[in-house]
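ARCHIVE CARD
CATEGORY: sequence design from structure
SOURCE FIELD: tokenized fold
FIELD CONTENT:
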């Protein structure tokens, strides 16, 4: 049952992130492929955190199955903050006029703007769980220690993996390639309304 609810929560999160990061359809302004990277971000952070925590010999209990829900909320929030900063840094410049170097620089400026925000939220969560890991209840202490490791990896991957995926997706949009099927190019006359609003 916990695996089913985790799967459903990831599907709902994918649909929500896909519809809110970009346009709802598969047009030029869509970011459905990028929303998959948000889920991959959470999955990688969970695997890395669980792996390191298990390596240190921490106890695993059924209560730990709740952690993916916690990490999903934090990861999606970080992704929205970074993506919002990335869009703001474009400052009305048409996508077609940006070269690879300017897109990369825009990603670094977006991370400089959003980095403090995601660092403060992640550090607050990490410290709260790290303090709670000194609890006298073994299962609770182990749960909080697992959460601390996972949040650290979530913060690290959000600042590296997700930003890289966002830059790649922006290049895909600039080159007028289809979402999720990047080998196919869209027709030039099919300009998305979101693109017109952004310019």
């Amino acid at each position: 049952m916990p695996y089913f609810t985790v799967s459903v929560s990831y599907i709902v999160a994918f649909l929500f992130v896909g519809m809110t990061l970009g346009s709802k359809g598969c047009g030029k302004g869509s970011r459905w492929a990028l929303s998959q990277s948000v889920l991959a971000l959470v999955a990688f952070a969970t695997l890395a955190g669980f792996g390191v925590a298990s390596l240190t010999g921490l106890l695993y209990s059924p209560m730990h199955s709740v952690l993916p829900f916690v990490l999903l909320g934090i990861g999606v929030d970080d992704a929205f903050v970074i993506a919002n900063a990335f869009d703001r840094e474009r400052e009305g410049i048409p996508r077609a006029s940006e070269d690879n170097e300017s897109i990369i620089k825009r990603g670094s400026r977006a991370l400089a703007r959003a980095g403090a925000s995601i660092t403060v939220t992640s550090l607050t969560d990490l410290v709260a769980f790290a303090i709670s890991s000194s609890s006298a209840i073994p299962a609770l202490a182990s749960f909080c220690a697992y959460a601390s490791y996972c949040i650290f990896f979530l913060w690290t991957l959000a600042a590296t993996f997700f930003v890289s995926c966002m830059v790649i997706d922006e290049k895909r949009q600039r080159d007028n390639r289809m979402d999720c099927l990047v080998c196919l190019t869209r027709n030039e006359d099919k300009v998305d309304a979101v693109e017109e609003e952004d310019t």
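CARD ANNOTATION: The chain has a mean pLDDT of 81. Residues 39 and 126 are 20 Å apart (CA to CA).
SHELF: design records, drawer C
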